[in-house]
Design goal:
Radius of gyration of chain A: 23 Å
Radius of gyration of chain B: 23 Å
Structural class of chain A: alpha/beta
Largest sheet of chain B: none
InterPro entries (chain A): Sulphate/thiosulphate_BS, Thiosulph/SO4-bd
Subcellular location (chain A): Periplasm
Oligomer: heterodimer
Number of helices of chain B: 13
Family (chain A): Belongs to the prokaryotic sulfate-binding protein family.
CATH architecture of chain B: Orthogonal Bundle
CATH topology of the largest domain in chain A: D-Maltodextrin-Binding Protein, domain 2
CATH topology of chain B: MetI-like fold
GO molecular function (chain A): molecular carrier activity; sulfur compound binding
Strand content of chain B: under 5%
Protein name (chain A): Sulfate ABC transporter, periplasmic sulfate-binding protein
Number of helices of chain A: 16
Shape of chain A: globular
Largest sheet of chain A: 7 strands, mixed
CATH class of chain B: Mainly Alpha
Chain lengths: 335, 277
């Protein structure tokens, strides 16, 4: 064979190897909810570095954010998510039931109900707290304007609603009718129902709407960090709900893309000391006791109840409160 | 066959009609029929209770009411804008002319966010309206403002060319015969542009009914008060209630179709009456 032929064969092989390498540059997509943007931006940088050191492979992690329900629907409708990190277990259950992309027993696969970090619901008020808001009780005063998103579309809003309900239930010794009346009065003070938590935060902070924002704890801290404590104050209510935002691998997508090992490691690394530190720095309560102690000064200890204790789990809370014709709808329709 | 196909000197009728039907089916009819088929999964009582729930009824009222009001306002002011642009020379006319198309080009969500920022209590306009007790952003008025914004170019752009084509001689002849300016407008100009004006009105109205992006930011989205029907469809989708969402969509489609049909008939009637006179 002539030299030229060998050269072209050599070139061809080189091209093939190169294109193989391009294919081997694997990527995973993390579909997440609204307020985790900053958390995952930092975590993705850390994780890609960690993965390269461990395996020598260069990978890309892409992220997508929006209201938790909307994101879950996007995954059902075909967004090729390899992992989902959503606001509540119900949304991941929905993906599992509606599309079969996730195994039914997903929540048992990682420790702590598959929730690597925790959060709660707090109240954010304007500087010097002009309306003197101290607890959930103050939100039903007639002159207080409350900002919270729509529980039908926002995971955070559902936690907000349930936190208020839990407070009212405790205050009235478990009287459900009284709790419902409390929530009705609270939502009378709400003039905008955004579809996601971030939209509500923007309305409260930038548009100057309302006296108090019911918010994820991490979102409230973030607002404080971005806009300064000279503008806003965080009020810790006497009691609130322990929010457990769960994570899981989207089995069928991850297998189809051949990235299961990355997706798995991506979620497990969230539980590592490094992952927990990043969560804490982004104002999520760490689940690791040691890191939690280290950041205890940042997260005031408040009385927290879980959704299982008060509502008997997500499926039950969902069907009683949030489904069409449920208690949340009655608040508006019966007015 | 011959009764169906009227004789035309223009060749290519069969081919052109074939392509028209194929194109309409692919682009319009098939997607729309999918909505009907999907909602057929509901039984009739289920369908009826979904589309007549109090929240849904309140949203029809807002969507169709605000759309109609916005289209009426746009028909009036759009006509005025077109008139000024056609009849008077003034500096910066081309710039104004180009501005009209902006609501077409602007992504609707950008329009929504901008309008919200302006009309919110701390916005440029909102800060002056709020002390007067007028709240625009996050109320039904905000919905009306957003729909007016997106609908304006439809009226201006349909009326403008017709106004440009009106023969000056007609008006001159009328003036010579002793008609007043008001008579000239009422008897000559207005009847000529009326078909174009109703088209512009219908387009602005139809656009407003389906509008989502710009409204959603300014509406406030409170059940029974400031929820538009497209939002309810999205809300149902986000609760994984696909059939409920399509049921409401079907109702919107049917109502919109009937309204547009009425407007088209009206237009046809206006046109034919105009020819007889």
């Amino acid at each position: 064979m002539q030299f030229n032929t060998w050269l072209s064969v050599g070139l061809l092989i080189l091209v093939m190897v190169n294109s193989n390498q391009a294919l081997a540059d694997r990527a995973i997509l993390n579909v997440s909810y609204d307020p985790t943007r900053e958390l995952y931006e930092e975590y993705n940088r850390k994780f890609t570095r960690y993965w390269q050191e461990k395996t020598g492979e260069k990978i890309t992690v892409r992220q997508s954010h929006g209201g938790s329900g909307k994101q879950a629907r996007a995954v059902i409708d075909g967004v090729p998510a390899d992992v989902v990190t959503l606001a509540l277990a119900h949304d991941i259950d929905a993906i599992s039931e509606q599309s079969g992309l996730i195994l039914a027993e997903w929540q048992k696969r990682l420790s702590n109900n598959s929730s690597p970090y925790l959060s709660t619901i707090v109240l954010l008020v304007r500087k010097d707290n002009p309306k003197g808001i101290k607890d959930w009780d103050d939100l039903i005063k007639p002159d207080v304007a409350v900002v919270t998103p729509n529980p039908k579309t926002s995971g955070g809003a559902r936690w907000n609603y349930l936190a208020a309900w839990g407070f009212a239930l405790k205050k009235h010794d478990g009287d459900e009718a009284k709790a419902q009346e409390f929530l009705t009065r609270l939502y009378k003070n709400v003039s905008i129902l955004d579809s996601g938590a971030r939209g509500s935060t923007i309305n409260f902070i930038q548009r100057g709407i309302g006296d108090v924002l019911i918010s994820w704890e991490n979102e409230a801290f973030l607002a404080l960090k971005e806009y300064g404590p000279e503008k806003f104050e965080i009020i810790m209510p006497s009691i609130s709900i322990l929010a457990e935002p769960p994570v899981t691998v989207v089995d069928k997508n991850a297998d189809r893309h051949g990235v299961r090992n990355i997706a798995q490691a991506y979620l497990e690394y969230l539980y590592s000391k490094e992952g927990q530190e990043i969560a804490a720095r982004n104002f999520y309560r760490p689940s690791d006791p040691e890191i939690a102690r280290k950041y205890a000064h940042q997260f005031p200890a408040i009385d927290l109840f879980t959704i299982n204790e008060v509502f008997g789990g997500w499926p039950k809370a969902q069907s009683i409160h949030f489904k069409d014709g449920g208690l949340f709808d009655k608040i508006y329709v019966n007015q | 066959m011959s009764t169906f196909k009227q004789y035309s000197v223009l060749p290519g009728f069969n081919l052109a009609l074939g392509f028209t039907l194929l194109y309409l089916s692919l682009v319009v009819l098939i997607p729309l029929s999918a909505a009907f088929i999907h909602s057929a999964k509901l039984t009739w009582p289920e369908f009826w209770s979904t589309v007549t729930a109090p929240r849904v009824i309140a949203s029809y009222r807002l969507t169709f009411g605000a759309s109609f009001a916005a289209a009426v306002v746009n028909a009036f002011f759009g006509l005025l804008v077109a008139w000024v642009l056609v009849r008077y020379p003034f500096p910066g006319k081309r710039l104004v002319d180009a501005l009209i198309d902006l609501p077409f080009a602007l992504p609707t969500s950008v329009a929504g966010i901008t309008l919200t920022a302006i009309y919110a209590g701390n916005g440029w306009i909102g800060q002056y309206l709020e002390p007067l007790g007028i709240k625009v952003a996050f109320t039904p008025i905000g919905v009306f403002v957003a729909l007016t914004f997106i609908g304006l170019p439809f009226v201006v752009r349909t009326v403008q060319p017709v106004l440009e084509d009106i023969e000056k001689e007609l008006e001159e002849a009328a003036a010579m015969l002793g008609a007043t300016r008001w008579q000239i407008f009422r008897r000559i100009i207005f009847p000529t542009i009326l078909p174009a004006l109703t088209t512009g009105f219908a387009l602005a109205f139809a656009r407003a009914i389906g509008e989502y992006g710009s409204v959603i930011f300014i509406a406030g989205n409170i059940p029974m008060i400031s929820e538009i029907t497209p939002l309810l469809i999205i809300t149902k989708l986000e609760q994984y209630d696909y059939t409920g969402a399509t049921a409401i969509a079907v109702v919107m489609l049917v109502i919109s179709f009937i309204l547009l049909l009425i407007i088209n008939l009206l237009q046809w009637w206006v046109h034919h009456r105009g020819i007889k006179v």
